[in-house]
Amino acid sequence: MSEFLRLEALEKRFGANVAARSVSLTARAGEIVALLGPSGSGKTTVLRLTAGFETPDSGRVVVEGEDVTRLPPERRRFGMVFQHYALFPHMTAGENVAFGLTARRGDGRSKSAVRQRVAEVLALAGLSGFEDRRVTELSGGQQQRVALARALAPSPRVLLLDEPLSNLDPALREKTRRELKRAIRRIGITTLFVTHEQEEAFELGDRVAVLNAGRLEQVGTPEELFEKPETRFVAIFIGRSSVVPVRWEQGARLPRGPVWPAIEGAPLEEGSDADLVVRPEALEFTARPRADALEGEVVERRYAGRSAYFRVATEAAGELEVLAPPLAAREGDRVLVVPAPGGPVPRVFPRQGAA
Amino acid sequence: MRPRRGLALLAGGLVLLLFWLVGYPLVLTFLEALGAPRFTLAHFAEFARRPAEWQALWASLWISLVTVVLSAAIGVPLAFLFERAEFPGRRALGVLVALPVALPPLVGVIAFLFLYGESGFASRAVQAALRLDRPPWRLSGPTAILLVHAYSMYVYFYLFTRAGLARLDAAYIEAAKSLGAGRARTAISVTLPLLSPVLSGAALLTFMTSLASFSAPYVFGGSFRVMTTQIVASKLNGDIELAMVETVALAAVGFAGLYLLRRTEARSVVGTVRGVAPRRALAGGRFAVAVAGWLLAALLLLPHASLLLLSFVPRNTWTTEALPPVLDLGNYASLFAQPERLRPIVNSLWMAAAATAAALLLGFLAAYAAIRSRSHRSGAKGGATASALEWLIAAPWALPGTVFAVALAAAFSVDRPAVARFVLVGTAAILPLGYLVRSLPLTGRASFAGLRQLDPALEEAAASLGARAGRRLTRVVLPHLKPALLAGASLAFLSSLGDFVVSIVLYTYSTRPISIEILSALRLQEIGVAAAYGVLLTALSAAAFLTWGRRA
Question: B174: which chain A residues are within 8 Å (Cβ-Cβ)?
Fold first, then answer.
């Protein structure tokens, strides 16, 4: 399946602040793409540029081969679910859902057709019979579903979601997330959504686009991002990791210590200063002294069911996080840390600040 | 427990004092309308029998309703323009457009007279251009009243709508757009319904102000009477009981309005600030909008420009020319050189200053006592005292100035100290007292609003650090309230300075204020002098409004 939605080198400045730097991204028909990043990374700006609420300084938004960059939002036929839903408080749930069906004169829908469509979409959102409810009387989860139904009712070409779950309490979030995914899948609509939560991005998104400071760092499946981060930012931002200053010697030469196996995240000169990004899963404890072991003291142990995270203060390399069986060590123990065979291979990136 | 007893004493004393000032005169008016001490409904029957009374009541109502419609038609589009579009000069014009609300009503009325009246600039210009042998129109009757009302009261719709738009969550608008709604559909089915609490608030405020309006009907009405002019006419005719009945009737309408207003205010406002809609820089129309905006501002300032020009015209030098041939500063010189003409200025200044100071003190104390006795949770009694204080402070705002003027005249023209009635009418005390009552809502509301925003924890923190009540007040509470109090005081001062409604009922020759002197100058054909007084009032009011009043 070829691309359906294409963002081409989108660029947007607000005064001196660059919110989007040449962001290019494509989505295939029916694909769900997550825009993930810390606050201020420009993910919401990219979504709003796509929706048409902001006009890019340069770049294009193309859908089905049609350039919509200059089209106002009301003529793009993109559905949007807002962070706080923006349900019209002076209308019932049914009236909210019907709004987009009757928004333009000459849409040619009869009253009964509108009513039927409203019922259909509400049913899809699991809210059959909610037509006459006031939106202010609905729970947070129900409001979220009305907002989804309202966005989907006019059969938009693209669905845009701005932090769709951030307004729900954690217990409800996981359930709603699954329902949301099921609903989107059933319709098969191309979807772009913004989130700052990795778990949400990984569960909902077929692919995840990681943004930082207005720049698109990497787009890929969750596995690709986790196992083959292309930038230092992605390596640190996705999953848990420790950063150790090393020297690149076709491996990571630890300060006053051994060389650990690692691969280049970006091209490195032999002998240059670099940062080793190592995941807790890539490390383990050893009982016997080894040449490649680092010695340190367990300063914190965080229990997580079948295993535990140990924060180890090493003399040579600062603090490292190690994933190990819960009983492997206790706080205050002296331990030896070594690379774990079979774990994700640590990556080395040029030292930040250095070129 | 001593501080709390002190608070209860203060609150109780304030309720009594405010009741004596605000409630008591109204009660006495009602009793006199009933013919006390021999109670009879004869005066009410008389009122009901006269068609003129019904006509005046009806005129008050329909004039007010049409005023609301006209003001909305001007103010709402203007608010959208200034809040949603971006064009050069937007900020400065946005303030200028709100200015008519700060100008004394009587000055606005005579400025209109000088511009559009029979011998005004506009009429002369049209007459000269079309070579007519008489003025093209007469500025009188309901049309003239409505014109002046719309000119001064659209500001309520303008300010309320702008505030509402600024608070509206932009996501609502964006949601409508993403669902395919164009600009018109979005405005009609999303923005306006969301603004409805704000719009109904503005509508009621305009209605009440128009109901209480006196200057425009008095100057332009002629034989067309509304309730306020009818009351003053009855009183001047010596028909005291009838005037009392009329006052009660007008007060009843005012209270109904206040009740409605409170209900709309109690309704929670939907749409809070989350995102603010970006201003549209009107790319193509930018220049056109700027020109239109500046033209509009010029149109709005034209009456006052006429006033200014006329203030430089010496007496009897301008006859048939389109523009006055001679201009000098003689009128201003005479205001300050002739003791008889300086007198009203001095009167207005000291009376307004005294009334403002007293209103500031009373308003602040009442708000402080009300809010503290509520927050101390001293049970139902504290709550009742607080409500009483709030109502007494708000009542003069809901009731037309004429009602209070007549009530004060009725209450304080009798010497019976046993029932707390003294002869104050005819003394220098009665006008400042009248201004004080009218100013209470302005200073009181400002204090209430300021104190409600003040976190009680601040004062508690000061107390825990060892500060006694006086130090807490001067070092913590008052510094926080200063902007609100200044704003309230400046509004009180400028409304007292320009007052005409209360003055015309209660003035004596030696205490005559500027507004009364403007009127008598007009009667004597001293147009230039009247204009000079008007300019003086306008300048003082605008200065006070622009310096402190805008935060109110």
Answer: 51, 53, 73, 80, 82, 86
Lowest mean pLDDT across A214-218, B306-310, B460-464, B540-544: B460-464
- For chain B, what are the domain ranges? 1-40+326-552, 50-310
Distance from CA of B171 to the nearest CA of A (A): 6
| 3-class DSSP assignment, residue A118 | helix
Angle at B299 between CA B298 and CA B301, to 5 degrees: 65
Q: Which domains does chain A have, with CATH numbers?
A: 3-232 (3.40.50.300), 241-350 (2.40.50.140)
* 3 state DSSP class of A63: strand
List Cα–Cα distances, A175 to A129, A147, A200, in angstroms: 21, 17, 12
With tokens 């130090």, the residue in question is B471
> CA nearest B188 in A: which residue?
A103
Dist. CA B364–CA B369, nearest whole Å: 8
Express each pLDDT in B112-153 by its tens digit. Answer: 888 888 878 888 888 888 888 888 888 888 999 999 999 889
The owner of tokens 């630890």 is A254
pLDDT for the residue numbered B273: 39
Work out the average pLDDT over B337-362.
94
ipTM of the complex: 0.78
Task: Give the nearest partner residue to B181 out of A74, A150, A151, using CB atoms.
Answer: A74
The 10 Å Cβ neighbour count of residue B357 is 17
Cut 0.90: pTM above it = no
CB-based contact (8 Å) between A14 and chain B?
no
Distance of alpha carbon A190 from alpha carbon A184, whole angstroms = 8
CATH architecture classification, B1-40+326-552: Orthogonal Bundle (1.10)
A103 vs B180, B194, B271: nearest CB: B180
Question: Token digits for B234?
Answer: 């009855």
> Would you state the pLDDT for residue B113?
87
| CATH number belonging to the domain at B50-310, selected among 3.30.450.20, 3.40.50.1000, 1.50.10.20, 1.10.3720.10 | 1.10.3720.10
- Which stretches of chain A drop beneath a pLDDT of 50? 354-355
- pLDDT average, residue stretch B453-462: 78
Quickly count: other Cβ atoms within 10 Å of residue A319's Cβ. 14
Q: Is the per-residue pLDDT at B84 higher than 90?
A: no
**Element of type H or E holding B506:** helix B501-506
- Are A299 and A320 in contact by the 8 Å Cβ rule? The answer is no
Q: Report pLDDT for A167.
A: 83
3-state class (DSSP) for residue B446 = helix
Percent of chain B with pLDDT strictly greater than 90: 25
Residue B267 has pLDDT above 70, yes or no: no
Distance from CA of A77 to the nearest CA of B (A): 7
Query: DSSP secondary structure string, B253-310?
Result: HHHHHHHHHHHHHHSPPP--SSS-PPPEE-TTTHHHHHHHHHHHHHHHHHHHHHHHHH
Q: Which of B324, B111, B124 is nearest to B220 (CA)?
A: B111
Backbone angles phi, psi at B360, to 5 degrees: -65, -50
Q: Which residue in chain A is spatially nearest to B274 when comparing CA positions?
A: A84
Place of tokens 């930038």: A231
Two domains, one topology: B1-40+326-552 and B50-310: yes
For the cut 60, the answer to whether the pLDDT of residue B283 exceeds it is no
For B60, half-sphere exposure in the C-beta direction (CA atoms, 13 angstrom radius) is 26
pLDDT at B163: 86
Of B171, B176, B194, the CB nearest to A84: B171
Nearest-angstrom CA–CA distance, A257 and B545: 75
Q: List pLDDT tens digits, range B234-250.
A: 988 888 888 889 988 98
pLDDT at residue B66 greater than cutoff 90: yes
Neighbours of B265 (CB within 10 A): 13
Q: Minimal Cα–Cα distance from A352 to chain B, Å?
A: 35
User: Does B177 sit within 8 Å of A74, measured CB to CB?
Assistant: yes
- Give chain B's end-to-end CA distance (angstroms, integer): 36
